[in-house]
Amino acid sequence: MAHVTLRKLVKRYGALEVVHGIDLEVKDREFIALVGPSGCGKSTTLRMIAGLEDVSGGQIEIGNTVVNDLPPRARNISMVFQSYALYPHMSVAENMGFSLKIAGRSADEIKERVAEAATILDLSHLLERRPAQLSGGQRQRVAMGRAIVRQPEVFLFDEPLSNLDAKLRTQVRTEIKKLHARMQATMIYVTHDQIEAMTLSDRIVIMRDGYIEQVGTPEDVFRKPATKFVAGFIGSPPMNMDEATVSGGELVFSGGARLPVPPRFSTRVSEGQKVSFGLRPDDVYPTGHGLHGGEASAVHQSELTVSITEPLGNETLVFTQFNGRDWVSRMLNPRPLQTGEKVPMSFDLSKAHLFDIETGKTLDI
C-alpha cells in the first residue's frame, strides 16, 4: 500500500476556485474520511486524487510518485462510486474480473483474484448471478470486489452508501470496516454522513467551502473541535450553541439567561468579550439522568421548561427552553416528562466550549 500527500492542492473551474490550496498527509494503511456539507470540495478533492479531475495547482503524491499528470489507470488506485456502475449483462464474477480482463491478465489469475475477493466479501455463492438478481447491499459489495481484485495501492470511496436504506447502510458500513482491518489498505472515504466518518475512520478531515477546518481522530473532532463550524457539524444531535457576553465571571446571553464562565476558560476570556458558547446534548441533562463524570463544582443547576420529548427507548431527547430557544439534552434512564413541566437541569460546564465570535476558532488553547 502507500501514503497519499496533498500539497497546496487547488481546483478551479474558470475563475471559480473550489479547493483552496489544501495540505493533507494520509499515512500508509490509514483510513481517512473526508466529510463536510454539500459543495465543500470533498468529492472534487477525491476525484483529483483519482485523476478524474485535473489539478489547477499544487501536487498529489501517491507512494513516492507525483501523479498530477498520470492518467487514472497509471495511479494504481481503485475507486468505489455512489452508483454501482455494474454491467447488467455480466455475472458477478464477470463484473469483478472485467478490469483484469481488459488489462490482459490470464483467465487463471482472474479466477483466483475474483475468488479471493468474493471470499472476503461473502459473495462466493452469488458469482453466477446478474446485478438485477442482487439486493442494493450485494451490488455495492460487488462494486467493492471489483476494486479489490485490482490490488491497488489506495482505495477511494465516493459516498458509496448513499443509495442504500438505513439498515443496509449499517450492514455495508460494517463490511467496509472489516475490509480495511483485513486488507490493511490505505483508504480515503468521502461522505456527508458524519456517523459514517466517525465509525469508519482513523482520522477525519472536515472540509468547508474548499478549505480544511480540522483534521483529527473521531475523538478529537468530537471532544476538541477547533472551530464553531466543526462543533456544530460533528455530533448527533448537534451541539447547543448561543452567543453571550462575559460579565463579572458570568456569560450573559442576549435573552437574559446567565451561566458561570466555564472554569477552564476563566483566564482565557476578558470582561466584555463576546463569545459563542456550546454544550453537547450529553452534557446538559435532567438532574440525575446524565453521564456526568467531571468536577462537581463545574456542574451548574437551573430549572427549565420542557418543550417536547423524543423517547428513543433507553434514552429520551428532551428539548427545554433556554434563553428563548430549544436546547436539546440526552436523558438516560428516562422518566416520563410532560410538555410545560419545569425540570431541574444540570449543565456540565467542564465539557463546555467557547469560540471567538469573529473567527469562529476555539478559545480552548
List keywords for this structure.
single chain; 23% helix; 20 strands; 365 residues; globular; 8 helices; alpha+beta; 6-stranded mixed β-sheet; 5-stranded antiparallel β-sheet
Would you summarize the structure shown here?
The chain is of the alpha+beta class and 365 residues long. It is built from eight helices and 20 strands.
Describe, in plain words, how this protein is organized in 3D:
The protein is 23% helix and 34% strand. It has 365 residues and is of the alpha+beta class. Helix 2 packs across helix 3, helix 2 runs parallel beside helix 4 and helix 4 packs parallel to helix 5. The mean pLDDT is 93. Strand 9 and strand 10 form a beta hairpin. It has a six-stranded mixed beta sheet, with helices on both faces. Strands 13-12-11-14-20 form a five-stranded antiparallel beta sheet. A five-stranded antiparallel beta sheet has the order 15-19-16-17-18, with no helix packed on it.
